[in-house]
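New to this. Comment on this protein:
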Amino acid sequence: MIKKSYLFPTFVAMLAVTATSCIDDSSSYGGNPLPGLSVTVPGDDEMPVYSFNYGEDCVITPDIRYDGTGELSYEWSIGTFNNRVKGPMEFVTNDKTLRYFFPQGGSYYAHLVVSDGEVGLVQDYEININRTFEQGYMILSNNAAGEGNLVFIKDLTREEIEAGQEQTIMENCLQRVNPNLSRSSLIGAQIIQWYAWGGSGPVQTSRLAVMTTEEGLYVDPNTFVISSTIRCNDIVPGFKGNQFFMSGINPVIVDNVSKKYISLNSQYMFGFEDSLYKGEEFDLIKNNTYQVGLNQVSDVYYVNLSPLVLSITAPYSPTKWSSSNTIDETDENGYPLFTNEELLAIFKGEGISGSTGTTSYPATLITRNKTTGQIYSTAFVGIGDYTDGLRFSSRNVVTADASTALPDQNSQIVCSNTYRRGFFSKGNQIFVMLRNESIYNFPPVSQAAVTYPSNEEITYMTISTQSGSESLIVATVDNNTGRGNLYFYNVSDIRTDNPNPAPMATYPDCADRISYITYKPSISN
């Protein structure tokens, strides 16, 4: 559609945006022919519609046709367009091309005025900014230089799917909306939710915390705009975080080299060196966050590798730390546990119903005797039963020989409660371990459930229930390019008798080397 030019006499130039007298290109003013000025817009809409994803710049370059000799001026203004009602305009730029970053999703309009001083035109554009971070998967990745790259994969709504909208995958999300933010290595992210009692009952508060090697960031969960920055070096000089865990609703960033711990207070969004862990030296910290009652709680396992000792923070008493939180190092027959043993893996086991109606998830260790090579599976419970410390659950011999696929030291293992099986990775392969009573059985090395190309290495796995059923999400890195890939499988398809099932979805080359995946639901506040 071509918009005709409007007459702008010099003495009413300032009223250009309200001009109403339209003239043809062949008209004249003051006895001289007027130059032709028009704009072509897509389709035949009086107000063409443009859609952009939040986190990206809105860029519109008008198709202007002008046969005069004067110099054209441009003026862009932006206003809200809620319920198709135009709000007040704000001047943006005098450039021909509009480049604008909208602070949040929603509906807006852009108003363009073009003039050479004699003739001019106006054109409005409807702009819809999709709410990119409404809900979906947050993918934490880092490149070979140690630069962080937070990727978001948006869940499409039914309306978006029906409209044929393509999947939104956005990289470097934090830097897109916080342009001055450095690209420090990412070590974790956590949705944090708790209830406080208000005048009319419990009121939920939600936070999104992102942890880097240098900072703890609290960000708006819907826009990813930073609301609070906690610089670790200001609290502990020289601090470099490399992992995190949750203590109640507070993330704790760990420097494994200096054995320092910085806690982030989620309620008031400040950081401090946590004296609770001062002097403690853990080689591994494993964390599982879940919901019990109104507030968020976590299992936290602390592991010393030599000698092998497992400890735990007491539930609902994060300030309590004593020897009572360390396991009794004898089994039910009085034999020492872990003597001369090395850790292969520690993981959250399948859920076990507790006496109070809650579900506990045992800390399960796969260990190997350094002398005999005998493999053991040892489990402890306690958190879900509201008891302090760890309670011995079971210890079993695992039948294994040279042909058995066993997890590598410090391997990540994820378990399915629905299908009562676990998954672990070795290089570019996924293996399934089955549980018989309290014993985990491991498959032969020849029975991998999934094998990726030789240039891919598995870097992270997790089980999600967001689709209504359990999905196994697998991240790999292409060792030739350093770029990460994602695969989504139905858990029921991952079996030794069904090798290399087709994934439900794949996202190749969507990130750098992936180290963590978590789901961000829709959050109202």
User: Anything to note?
Assistant: The chain has three helices and 43 strands.
